[in-house]
Amino acid sequence: MLLFKIFIVEDDPWYGEILQYHLGLNPDYEVTLLKTGKECLAQLSKKPDLVTIDFSLPDLNGEELFRKIRATQPHLPVIVISAQDKITTAVSLLKLGVDDYLVKDDHTKELLWKSIIRIRENLSLKEEISELKAELKTKYDYSNTIVGNSAAIRQVFRLIDKAAASTINVSITGETGTGKEVVAKAVHYHSPRASQPFVAVNMAAIPKELVESELFGYEKGAFTGAQQRKTGKFEEANGGTLFLDEIGELELGIQSKLLRVLQEKELTRLGGNGKVKLDFRLVVATHKNLADEVRKGHFREDLYYRIVGMPIVLPPLRERREDILLLAQHFLKLYSKENKDTEYKLSADARQKLVQYPFPGNIRELKAAVELAAVMSEHHQIEAADITFMSDLTKDPLEGKEMTLREYTRLIIKNYLEKYQDNVVLVAEKLDIGRSTIYKMMQTGEL
C-alpha cells in the first residue's frame, strides 16, 4: 500500500519533531520535516499528499509559501499552523484556499490529526467521484454501446463528438428501436455536464393532463392531492441534460410553455409565484418528421427552430445491414456475460437469416431475437431454426380463430403496445383510434 506523504514545514526544531513523532505513529503516514519555505518548494517534486506550514517562517510567511505551492500544485492540501490567533488572518487564508488553519496550543496535535483524517476522506471521495465519472463515460462510450462500422453509423459517431463538445441543443430522429436514448446518453456523458444529472422523459407515456405538473413541478396545495411540493423534470435536470423523448407528442399548449422556459431559462412551479432559474442542455428525440408536423400545424415553428439545434438522424437497421452481424455478436456477448455463460456462435445459415431479415423493429428487435435464439440453441451454436422474429410471433394469433370484434380489438391493441413499448399516443395514431379507448381497456384489465 502506498504511504500518505506529509511535509511538515516548521523552523522550530523541537515543535517540528513533536509533530513529526505524533503523526508518525500512524504507519500509513510518511512524515518529512523541513525547516524553511524554500526547502519545501525544492522538495515538491517528491509529490507530497499534504503539507503543513508554520505561518512565521524565517524566509517566507504562510501566505507567501501557500501561494507559491498553489502555483505549481493547485490541488495539494495545505494546513497552516500559527502562533497567531487573529481571526482576520485565519479568515484571509481560508478564503485563499487553505484547507485548515490551526493555532499552536495544547490541542494542536489532536486537531491536526483530525484535520488530516478529514482531508484524506475528502480526497478519497474525490477519487471515488472521478472513478465513477470515468466508469460512466466508459459505460456510455458509443464505441461500446453503439456498435457498427457502416458509413451511416460512423457519421452518427462524428455528430455525437461535435454535439458533446458544444452547448448546442440536439434533436435525434429515427424509427422506434434505433437507439435514440443511447445516443442522447452518449452526448451527455461525453460533454462537460457528464457529472450532472441526465433526466429522461418519455412524453408519449405521460397522460396529457399530467404533462405540465411532471415538467414544471408544483407547490403544496396547487391542486387537490398536492400534499407537498414536487420538483419537476426541468429542475431535476438543472446543471445537466434533459432528454425529452417523443417530443412530437407534446400538445400545442405545452409547446408554448416549453418555448418560454427555453427562452427565459426559468420557470414557475404550478401554484407558485417565485421564479426558478435553470441551466440545462436540451436533447430531444422523435420518430416523426418535425418539419412536416410544423407544416401541418401540429408543432410550433418557433419551438422547432429553438430545439432542432444539431440534428442527428439514426438510420434504420435495414439501411446498415453490414452492422447486423456485429450487433448480433455484441448482444450475444452481453447475454453470455449477464448469464455467466459460455459465448454463443452463429452458424452460417443463422447469419444469412439475420442479414436477410428487414427488422422493422430495428436494433431492439434484433436484440430480442438473438437472446431468444441463445435460449433455444443447443451446445451454444445458434442455428437458423433457433431464430424467431417478431413478425413470426404476430402472425398466428389472428389466423384460424373465431373471436368477437372486442377480442380482435383487444389483441390488435395489445400487439401494437408490445411492438411500440407501451407508447399509447403512437399506438392510437397507428390504429386511428382514440387514446381514451386504450386507457379504458388498461383500467378494466383487458390489456
UniProtKB/TrEMBL annotation:
Keywords of this entry: ATP-binding, DNA-binding, Nucleotide-binding, Phosphoprotein, Transcription, Transcription regulation
Pfam families, alphabetized: AAA_lid_14 (PF25601), Response_reg (PF00072), Sigma54_activat (PF00158)
Sequence ranges assigned to domain Response regulatory in this UniProt record: 5-119
Gene3D superfamilies named among the record's database cross-references: 1.10.8.60, 3.40.50.2300, Homeodomain-like, P-loop containing nucleotide triphosphate hydrolases
CDD domains: AAA, REC
GO biological process: phosphorelay signal transduction system; regulation of DNA-templated transcription
Residues where 4-aspartylphosphate is found: 54
Descriptive protein name: Regulator
Organism expressing this protein natively: Chitinophaga parva
